[in-house]
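Forum > Structural Biology > Help requests

Title: Can anyone predict the 3D structure of Threonine dehydratase?

Hi all, first post here. I have the sequence for Threonine dehydratase but no way to get a structure on my laptop. I'd be grateful if someone could post the structure tokens.
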Amino acid sequence: MRELLLECHERIKPFIHKTPIMESGMIENFLGNDLYFKCENFQRMGAFKMRAAVNAITQLTDEQRTKGVVTHSSGNFAQALALAARDLGVPAYIVVPSDAPEVKKNAILRYGGEVIECFPSLDARMRTANEIVEEKGVTFIHPSNDLRVIRGNATAAMEMLEIHPDLDILIVPVGGGGLLAGTALAAHYFGANIEVIGAEPLEADDAYRSLLSGKIEGNITTDTIADGLKTQLGDVNFPIIQEHVKRIILVRENEIVSAMRLIWERMKIIVEPSSAVALAALIKERQDFEGKKIGIILSGGNVDLNNLPFE
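Reply #1:
Sure, ran it for you. Structure tokens for Threonine dehydratase below:
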């Protein structure tokens, strides 16, 4: 796996940004630890998912590329696949729930993807994507439950560990599980005794419950501001998470908003609510992390500026 991850990183380098790692003295003083933010909000199309989309498409055969790709996504993977497909000359069909933020739908169109809206449920998204596969003969690429996607996601943490190999902890938001699984692999193969922790909204806590029960659980509710974390784990990423992740911290909606505002105000950067979940988890359980060297992956920065959770 280590060699596959290194090959993946080299393969996608021409198509991605090596995003910065930032610090905040104020936040570090508040929490009492060394804290490093891997800013994937500065990635092309504004989120870490560009890494996964490029890796997945570059693994296709010439015939598959000619026919095109399809995915279902609440927004960020949709944008990533559309942009990666445009870069590589591949048609892209994107199934998007009707309640996805308009800023993300518009970005898909700007990147050249074809948007197909569906009812906002996981079953509807999967059914619509399968219909497009049957109709057009395209290749389905799952936003999170695909090894090509997981390996692409791993490269964000790999870059962080090149600079800070002595991290004690990595905290990552978890929705579909692709970033958490990829980060866990990166920490396992390129770190030294790094604890990887997932951060999840209480209102979409399937990963937390799955880790406890030992089987994939569905979401009882997805009433969260963190729209990128409304999906659930899959049979490819869940075993990786089970093996390498021991803990997921749940956070409430007001805690997500407070963490998002703190990043905007103190770091002067734009992050979306899903990104802020990781810092919210650290703040909530800060007594457990004092004195530790901690990395956080800020997963993305695609927000609707007309619909912010704070003034």
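The beta strands are 21-22, 34-39, 69-72, 92-97, 114-118, 139-140, 169-173, 195-201, 245-251, 293-298. The chain has a mean pLDDT of 94.
Shout if anything looks off.
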